[in-house]
Amino acid sequence: MGVSLPESGTLRLPSRVHFGYGSRAQLPEVVRTYGRRALLVVDPFLTRTPFLAEAVDGLTAAGVSVRVHADVTPELPVSSLDAAGAVATEFAADVVVAIGGGSALDAAKLIALLAVYGGPLSSFYGENLVPGPVAPIVALPTTAGTGSEVTPVAVVSDPERELKVGISSPFLVPAAAIVDPEFTLGSPATVTAYSGIDALVHAVESYTARELSSSWDAPLPVFTGRNVLSGPVALQAARHLGPWLEVAVASPGDRRAREEVAAGALLGGVAFGSTGTHLCHALQYPIGALTKTPHGLGTGLMLPYVLDAISADPATADRIATLGAVMHGIAPEADGPAAVGSPAVGGSGLGFTAAGTIARVAAINRAIGVPRTLADIGLGRDELPRIAELALGSARLLAIAPIEPSRDVLLEILTRAHDGLLTDRSAA
């Protein structure tokens, strides 16, 4: 018997999104919508590629004054962003253009914030503390994974904090996003793998998020939990990523695979930008801080173990089974557990179970080189309790989890991830 969907939902999106090979040609026209002075925040490696010269030449020909800021430091230390905000103010930028991976896009969001309101950035840590619109942001991702081009969050490193810190506000959603898969063709296999699996985590955690109750006569949280609008988008994201991520990693010049993964990453960002993410991300923040491993490696490593834990809930297990069906390329007729068992999805009648989905995710991880266990990335058992304690501090993420995430639950997930143990629920 299906479970009825919530009859309400929220999506916060750029005013325009362009997707497809060659879509970057829209950049001058889009930027001119917002002004004539553009600060380009770019990954340093782009200064050695024709893509940046193409962007600068196109903007200049359209009458836009351009200044390039390529001093984007990995992990985004907060001090570097305060300085970059001063650059935007001195240049009197009308619009901030972000070209690069997740760090460049997040940096652009925060520079756009500082250009309008000044610092320190610490005054905006948390949710809904940005007082109003920031400078318009036009985002062009060069990796397929973070979805930052359509989301309301940016993450920084603060030496006074043990973990990375998020700034979340609807005002940080870029004004426009241009997603051209051509940008991703040169990505190394590890970047494709770790960013791509993170995109799949976004889709999965969005689709399995808890449905939060909200009141329309009160300010909404930035992340509202699973809703009627985000569910179909999350499924479509998984449908693009499931069959194609392995291909993009194994055959980096495969244009179809790059297009599919870029589409999945974009849709995953649309989905989780409204719902939020949950346990993989809550656990990865302390894991990443301790191991200095890439974000997507950590979230991807944790995904089978988190799915294993949350599949103990029957309703969530149905949703996980639906994800398995779409990851095999089968289109659902509807969102939600009611779709499981329908002729369009297949459901348990055709072998799509939560256990099968978990096995499929584990197989993708093996194929693209995501480590299998926490022991494989150097964590000892004695470090797991501390990781669980730190994860408890991610209250926003834990609130969206479909199970009650007590310390003991988190420690159990971590222990299984350390030892490489998954529950066999195939007969359940």
From TrEMBL:
Fe-containing alcohol dehydrogenase-like C-terminal domain ranges (all copies): 192-417
UniProt xrefs under Gene3D superfamilies: 3.40.50.1970, Dehydroquinate synthase-like - alpha domain (1.20.1090.10)
Superkingdom assignment: Bacteria
Keywords of the record: NAD, Oxidoreductase
Record-annotated Alcohol dehydrogenase iron-type/glycerol dehydrogenase GldA domain positions: 14-181
PROSITE patterns the record matches: ADH_IRON_1
Organism: Cryptosporangium phraense
Example of a GO MF term: metal ion binding
Record has Repeat as a keyword: no
Record protein name field: Iron-containing alcohol dehydrogenase
Any matching Pfam family: ADH_Fe_C
Family statement: Belongs to the iron-containing alcohol dehydrogenase family.
InterPro entries linked to this entry: ADH_Fe/GldA, ADH_Fe_C, ADH_Fe_CS, Alcohol_dehydrogenase_Fe
